[in-house]
Amino acid sequence: MLVDNDTLYLYNLTLKPPSHYVSSVLGSFLGKKKSQEILVASSTSIALLRPDAETGKFEQLSRQNSLGVIHKVDKLRLAGTQKDLAVVIGNSGKLVLLEYNTTSNTFVPVLQQPYGKTGFGRVSASEYLCIDPQNRCIFIGALERNKLIYKVETNKEGNVELSSPLEAHSKQIFTLSVAALDTEYDNPVFAAIECDYSQYSTDEGDSSNIKTYDPESSPLLLNYYELDQGLNHIVKKKSSEKLPASSNHLIALPGHIGGVLVCCKNFILYDNLDPSMNRLYLPLPIRSGQQKTVIVTHVVHKLKKNNFFVLLQSSLGDLFKLTVDYNSDKELIDDIKISYFDTIPVCISINILKSGFLFGNVLNNDKLYYQFEKLGDDDDESALKASDYLDIASIEEEKATESKREFEVKGLDNLALVEIVETLSPIVDAALVETVSSESSDPLKSVVALSSHAYIKSLVHGIQTSTIVESPLPFTPTDVHTTKLFEDSVSDEYLVISSKLSSTTLVLSIGEVVEEVEESRFVTDQPTLAVQQVGKSSVIQVYTNGIRHIKHTRQDENIDKRTTDWFPPAGISIVKASTHKEQVIIGLSNAEICYFEIDPTDDQLVEYQDRVEMSSSITSLAISRDTLSKRKNSFAVVGCSDETIQVLSLQSHNCLETLSLQALSANSTSLVMLPTPSSTLVHIGMDNGLYVRTSIDEISGNLSDTRIKYLGSKPVSLSVIGLPDNTKAVLAISSRPWIGYYNAGSYKVTPLLGVNVSQGASFASEDIGGEGVVAIAENSLVVFTIGKEDEGFDINQDLNVKKLRLRYTPKQMIVDNISDKDRGTVSNFIYTLQSEYGVKGPFSKSLLAHVAKQEGKSHEDNSVDQDYFDAFGYKKEKNAWASCVQVIDVKEQDIAQSIEFEDNESAISLAKLHFDSAKGNSEYLIVGVSTNRTFLPNHYDKSYLYCFKINKAKKSNKEHLEFLHKTDLDTQPTSMIAFNGKLLVGMGKYLRLYDLGQRQLLRKSSSNIDYLTSIVKLLHQGGDRIVIGDASNSTTFAKFDALENRFISFADDIMKRQVTAISSLDYDTVIGGDKFGNIFVSRVSESVSKSSDEDWNLLKHQEPYLNASISRSKNVCEFFLSDTPTSFTRGSLTVGGQESIIYTGIQGTVGLLVPLSTKQEVEFLQKLELTLRKYLNYNFDDFEKDKYGVNLLGMDHLKFRSYYNPVKNVIDGDLVEQYYALTQSLKIKVARELNRTPREVERKISDLRERSAF
Question: Whole-model pTM?
Answer without folding.
Answer: 0.92
